[in-house]
Amino acid sequence: MIAFQTPQTAIDHVKALRWPNGPVCRYCSSAKAYTLSRKNMHRCAACRRNFSVTVGTIFEDTKLPLRIWFGAIWLITNHPKGIASTKLAKD
Fold it and tell me: What does DSSP assign to residue 6?
C-alpha cells in the first residue's frame, strides 16, 4: 500500500506497463488515441471507441480501485501456504 498511496499512482503504473509508447486501442490496435476530458479515458481516432487502461484485463469491470487489487495480489503471492478468502477479506 506504500507503493500505491493514491488510486492514480496504481493507474499510472498499469499505463506504464501496458502502454510504454502511449495508449493503444484495445479494439483495433491503433496507436492513434487521444485522452478524453474524463479522467483516465481514451478515444481511438480510428474506430472512435472509448477505452481505459483496464479494458481487456482482469480488472475491466471491477468497482474496487486498482490499489486494493494490487494489495490483495501481493497478500496472495507472498503467503507461504496460500490464504483463505476470509483471511484475505479481513486483511
Answer: S
pLDDT in tens, 31-48: 999 899 888 899 999 999
Q: Average pLDDT for consecutive 10-residue bins of the chain (91 residues)?
A: 83 91 91 88 93 91 90 86 81 74
Phi-psi region of 17 (alpha: psi -120 to 50; beta: other; left: phi over 0): alpha
- SS3 assignment, position 44: strand
So where are the chain's domains?
A: 7-90
Read out DSSP for 25-39? -TTT--S-EEE-SST
3-state SS, residue 50? strand
Whether pTM exceeds 0.85: no
CA 24 to chain CA centroid, Å, is: 14
